Amino acid sequence: MPANAAELDDMAEYVVGKVNDIPEGKGIAVEAGRRTIAVFRSAGKLYAVANKCPHKGASLCDGEVVVKDGIVRCPWHHWNWQLGDGKLEADPRQSLRTFEVAVEGDDVVIRV
Amino acid sequence: MNVMSKDNREHAKRIHPNPIDPRAHNYKVVDTDFHFLPDWQALRKFMKEPFRTELTKYPPVGSDYSPQYAIGIEGTGQETQGRASTAADILRVIDEIGVATVIVSPGFQRPQSMYHPAMISAIASAYNDFLAAEVLPASPRIKCEIMVNHRDPAAGAAEIRRVARHPGFVSVYTEFGGNYEPIGTAKHDPIYQAAVDNDLVVTSHVGTFYQQMSPLHQGTRTWTELVGISAVSISMAYVGSMILQGLFDKFPTLRVIVKEGGFWWLPEFMARADDYYLSHPGDIKLTERKLEAGEQFLGKLPSEYFDSNIRFSSQPVCFPRNPKHFKLLMELCRGEDMLLYSSDWPHATFDPLNWAFDPSISEEGRKKILSDNARNWFRRPL
């Protein structure tokens, strides 16, 4: 059995809401199992990432959040996270965990 | 992605996670640095004439590098998390950030950045009267620092004596930074005398973002150099002036808190100051306080004054890349005894208390950092 097979078996899909629940430049946080995931829309595209900023623990989708050009700016200290690959803009060695997201009909679905 | 059968899906619950560690509520947390910005017109009502009529807007201050270039948004970075203009604002915010008692700093006023002594004194008095009339009565959870004009020590001391009887004031606010002399010099003794006479802490907060005009910092171009780094060296210089010029020998009961000046530098400072002092003590007797007292040397080694006279507010706690080193730094700097939690809300450098739950900090240390160290240092009921 591959090392990550058990993890894959544990993966689950969650419906996080309707497409219109996540307008351009905004994000929502959802509880998906034990994880808190943020789903954002930037330039029409949906992204799902871990909601907790690794810097000091802010919720990435509450407060004065800016989502622009595929980047979310943390409301507390303005760390810019690239939504596509989760990397920190000013130091790509640091990253946020990213998750698959898809639209099915009117539903936004994430795989966690 | 490979979509699973719809039957296997759950609906995720939409939430608004509270990013503040919920365990905070078990600790009666004291926040020793929270910035308050009254509405200018509200403050103006408390000014004496002719200032009330003339100061229709906040006087210009000596800040000429804005962090907006660094953070890409308008403004000074001083309202990043919001703005507290009233007691109700303060109480709402401290509930959100897990704080039981707050010590409000007049940091927004940047008193020492103004180059007009009479204006500084007038604004300081108006601010203190505003607090006594409209903020302190709102809740015993709110305590305040006395704003003074520390560039005019006689006026600063008079202001302390004027308002110190009010139990809601727990400390005297001063700033380090700028191109004037460090506050440890003897000309500031009237302020220290007034603080000691009233058993009030003196705080020294980073401020007066004019460091680039000080010889130590000519040539800075970036916000990180200016506030991130220069603030540390300036705070070291200020603390050095207090210790080496005999401040704590003259006022042995004086309690100081250094705010936003860093503290991982303590081991370097202590070893270096002791060594240089022991090798070159001949000029100690030439400083004003030692001339006045007729003394040759300091009462103890420079490093020994930290325990008796100096504490540090915690923000910003800087975590080393290797998490194990945090524990080592805390041990080296005696962080569990020397640190008083501070949030710095609402500045761009806001530091939530979550770091205090790092497992390397002992439970006793956590209680001290979050609450007891402040209560013991300020002494007035918090």
Describe the structure.
The complex is a heterodimer of chains A (112) and B (382). Chain A is mainly beta and 112 residues long. Chain A has one domain: Rieske [2Fe-2S] iron-sulphur domain (Rieske Iron-sulfur Protein, 3-layer Sandwich). In chain A, 5% of the residues lie in helices and 48% in strands. Chain A contains one helix and eleven strands, in the order αβββββββββββ. Chain A has a six-stranded antiparallel sheet, with no helix packed on it. A three-stranded antiparallel sheet of chain A has the order 5-6-7, with no helix packed on it. In chain A, a hairpin with a 2-residue loop joins β8 and β9. The longest helix of chain A has 6 residues. Chain A is globular. The model of chain A has no long low-confidence stretch (mean pLDDT 91). By secondary structure, chain B is of the alpha/beta class. Chain B has a single domain, classed as Metal-dependent hydrolases (TIM Barrel, Alpha-Beta Barrel), CATH 3.20.20. Helices cover 37% and strands 12% of the residues of chain B. Chain B contains 15 helices and ten strands. The mean pLDDT of chain B is 91. At the A-B interface, β1, β2, β10 and β11 of A face β1 and β2 of B. β1 of chain A pairs parallel with β1 of chain B.
